Request: fold
Amino acid sequence: MFRSAYETTITKSFNIKKTIEAVQEAFITAREQFVNPVDTETQKVISEDVYLINPGHSEIPLFTHPLEIEVNKKKFVAVDVRNFTRLKQDRSISITSPLDYSFSTLRGILTQRWGDELQYKDLSNIGIIPMRIFSQWITNIVTIRLGLTPDIQIRLAVIAAYYYYCLCFDDKNETFDEREKQKAIVTVTRATYADMTNVTNILEPIEFLPNVDALVEAIKVHGNSLRYEQFNTAFLYTIINGSWFGSNAKEVLAVSLEHVPTWISLAWVCLAERGYKNTKIGQILYNVKSDEIDAFIRNVAGIIKAK
Reply:
């Protein structure tokens, strides 16, 4: 389980130590730049453990993903929205890119919930839609590029859904016992609409998949197609480009392959914001049953508003 976006494969080599230190210093010396996200309708604070960094005079390097910060024993998630806002002459803040601002705020809130030992299960148990869409997303993109046959597509969908299940599993031993494996099979069957016997046969030889490299290896070894011969993580990163067109889209999409709050934020914002409707992720979501989509939106909204 990747608690932070900066633990993922694409970002783990980033040196963010100086950025964290700069945020810590600014939180003390330039507190006016830090504001809690508020409900747009009620103007009430949504989370006191999330701070948006607005334009100001502090020298904080720009950063793309939510950062976990601790200052004087207070832990919070910092979200950099300076690229999407402007400081007006009267010192008020103007939002210049509402879609990016909305996505970044949501991702910060869900990252904070995901990092909370008491709340992360709310995201894990949010429903079948995030897994189903993730599986369809990977399957559609790989199928288009490699020309997979229907039977191979089913295997890929099952493996991708199982991988998402692993991303939600909080176990440092990174292994499933028989009971958990059976639970995974049932969940993947629901997510993919595949036959349970077929799902069982596909997943039986596959161990726990902790990261994107493990996913790629499982697809190559258990995907039953010679078309995967040259398949690798770099190729997967390349073909998912264009699935979403927000700020820093390429890196955010790569992170979403391993960071559950980022993926759920992408899915939710593609539904909530019409500007993302025509993205590849948005197009998949709009083919899902309306009652399932309604439940997904309600569940995410409930997590957002949970204190």
Summary: The first strand starts at residue 34 and ends at 35. The chain has a mean pLDDT of 93. The chain has two domains: 5-117, 122-305.
